[in-house]
């Protein structure tokens, strides 16, 4: 897989750790970023993984930047592209050229709370449950078919930071387990949603043992 990240790369690290531990049969063939100082790039380099950044301001349009970034990723010949804390919208032409090959992890129970500041959105809505989702990427912001979710309670006294920390603890195993199933060929994108083992399925749910129920 190729991984796209804009920040600290904690989800990238979770994938690298699972591979190193032998619990995820996959390889990361490259890490790519829109920010040259993203910690994710250094995490990759420290692990001997090729890492590269491109500056959006060097391109005349978002479409040109996306085309260049994904062309760079394509050079590594990934089967799957994982957006793990990648904070940019992706041009529709790039997505349409790679159907079912790009996934994203988003810190909410989609379709609730798309976009940014999801934890504060959940608090403002007085939600009693929050979490994270992995979905196939489409041109619709955080709108592609949801593959899997992990749920956490919203507790009395929570603020955005405490809620974010609780969600992050579940994000990492959620992403690893989803990639594990994708690598095994058990999950596929269909016209009307996702298929698990060839059968239409609602989003998978991560259990307390960090496996899908």
UniProtKB/TrEMBL annotation:
Keywords: Purine biosynthesis, Transferase
Record-given protein name: Phosphoribosylglycinamide formyltransferase
Function: Catalyzes the transfer of a formyl group from 10-formyltetrahydrofolate to 5-phospho-ribosyl-glycinamide (GAR), producing 5-phospho-ribosyl-N-formylglycinamide (FGAR) and tetrahydrofolate.
Binding site for (6R)-10-formyltetrahydrofolate: 62, 87-90, 104
GO molecular function: phosphoribosylglycinamide formyltransferase activity
Catalytic activity from the UniProt record: N(1)-(5-phospho-beta-D-ribosyl)glycinamide + (6R)-10-formyltetrahydrofolate = N(2)-formyl-N(1)-(5-phospho-beta-D-ribosyl)glycinamide + (6S)-5,6,7,8-tetrahydrofolate + H(+)
Residues reported in the UniProt entry to bind N(1)-(5-phospho-beta-D-ribosyl)glycinamide: 9-11
SUPFAM superfamilies in the record: Formyltransferase (SSF53328)
Active site as annotated: 106
Originating gene: purN
InterPro entries in alphabetical order: Formyl_transf_N (IPR002376), Formyl_transf_N_sf (IPR036477), GART (IPR004607), GART_AS (IPR001555)
Site entry (Raises pKa of active site His), positions: 142
Record-annotated Formyl transferase N-terminal domain positions: 2-179
Biological pathway: Purine metabolism; IMP biosynthesis via de novo pathway; N(2)-formyl-N(1)-(5-phospho-D-ribosyl)glycinamide from N(1)-(5-phospho-D-ribosyl)glycinamide (10-formyl THF route): step 1/1
């Amino acid at each position: 897989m190729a991984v796209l990240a804009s920040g600290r790369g904690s989800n990238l690290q979770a994938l690298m750790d699972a591979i190193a531990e032998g619990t995820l049969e996959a390889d990361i063939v490259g890490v790519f970023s829109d920010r040259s100082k993203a910690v994710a790039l250094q995490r990759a380099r420290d692990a001997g993984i090729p890492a590269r950044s491109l500056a959006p301001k060097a391109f005349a349009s978002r479409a040109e930047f996306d085309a260049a970034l994904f062309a760079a990723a394509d050079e590594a010949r990934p089967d799957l592209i994982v957006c793990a804390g990648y904070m940019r919208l992706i041009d529709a032409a790039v997505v349409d050229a790679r159907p079912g090959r790009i996934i994203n992890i988003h810190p909410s129970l989609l379709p609730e709370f798309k976009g940014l500041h999801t934890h504060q959105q959940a608090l403002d809505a007085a939600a009693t449950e929050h979490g994270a989702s992995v979905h196939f990427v489409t041109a619709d912001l955080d709108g592609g078919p949801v593959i899997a979710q992990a749920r956490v309670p919203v507790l009395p006294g929570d603020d955005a930071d405490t809620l974010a920390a609780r969600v992050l603890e579940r994000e990492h195993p959620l992403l690893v387990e989803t990639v594990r199933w994708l690598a095994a060929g058990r999950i596929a994108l269909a016209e009307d949603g996702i298929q698990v083992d060839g059968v239409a399925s609602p989003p998978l749910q991560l259990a307390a043992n960090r496996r899908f129920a």
